[in-house]
Amino acid sequence: LAETLNRMIARLQASFGALRRFTADASHELKTPLTVLRADIERAMHPGTPQADRLVALEEAMQEITRMADLVDSLLTLARADEGRFDLHREPIHLEPIVRDVTETATILGEGAGLTVSLPLVEDAMVLGDAARLRQLFLNLVTNAIKYTPRGGKVEMTLSHRNNNAVAFAVRDSGLGISAADLPYVFERFWRADRVRSRASERGGFGLGLAIAQWIVQAHGGTLTVQSRLGRGSVFTVLLPMLVDERPDAPADAPQEA
Ligand SMILES: Nc1ncnc2c1ncn2[C@@H]1O[C@H](COP(=O)(O)OP(=O)(O)OP(=O)(O)O)[C@@H](O)[C@H]1O
Ligand SMILES: [Mg+2]
What is the pLDDT of residues 25-67, one digit of tens each? Predict the structure, then answer.
């Protein structure tokens, strides 16, 4: 009995620790854009600031507000997921249109980043899913692939059947890759391979995209895995249970026997 209690206490302590860390990280991430915002607005309000510089300061302030709004969005999503309030609307949906739509967005982003984006394989499949969340999931993976691949690189997506009962969406990039030592942490909240550099550079994300991706996949009864080599590139693979439509009046691709 004592052992069971000890185990329970250890688990509770671990989850309180995780909660404390989450709150501390979230506050820290919100404080940074607030500091920048204050400086921008002070500059815009200062009577000695030339008109042109005022506009620049206000534009910068708007950018920080967008960043903060994104962060708050992500935090709310994760908080709801923690509470078990999934707000998922699962229904039978086709994946192909979602993947094509994500590819279109990715192609535009890829062009801006000097990358080749392609979709060499699409095998449509139905899943019991939330279309908006699945789109968000695919976009998170693809925007990472684009963000962490230097100019001239390649980003490739595929949608394919696995063993007749699962469908795989994979994103392969030829980018920076992730070291074996870092790999276990990629799905943790606020984790970034290189905090200092990625904060200062254009890349600067919050380290929440993959935590959200992981939640969406789990809420769909699927798995999300990663294979990567530092300097060589990464492959992120989502496996989702395939929905086999068994209604007698279901539209069939193949001719049915009479
Ligand atoms: N395709 C990839 N190639 C190399 N590193 C990656 C890739 N995807 C993720 N990473 C690493 O994992 C970290 C966490 O990714 P995640 O998407 O959770 O956060 P982020 O992209 O930094 O910020 P955001 O919250 O805006 O998504 C990244 O900061 C990066 O270091
Ligand atoms: Mg990301």
Answer: 899 888 888 999 999 999 999 999 999 999 999 999 999 999 8
Q: How far is the CA of 3 from the centre of ligand 1 (A)?
A: 39
Are the C-beta atoms of 224 and 213 separated by less than 8 Å?
Answer: yes
CA–CA distance, 242 with 219 (Å, rounded to integer): 14
Q: How confident is the model at residue 201 (pLDDT cuts 50, 70, 90)?
A: very low
Pocket test for ligand 1, best of 76, 143, 144 (most atoms within 8 A of CB): 144
Q: Could you give all domains of the chain from N- to C-terminal order, each with its CATH number?
A: 2-83 (1.10.287.130), 91-241 (3.30.565.10)
**CA 206 to ligand 1 center in whole angstroms:** 8
Q: Would you say 116 and 83 are in contact if contact means Cβ atoms under 8 Å apart?
A: no
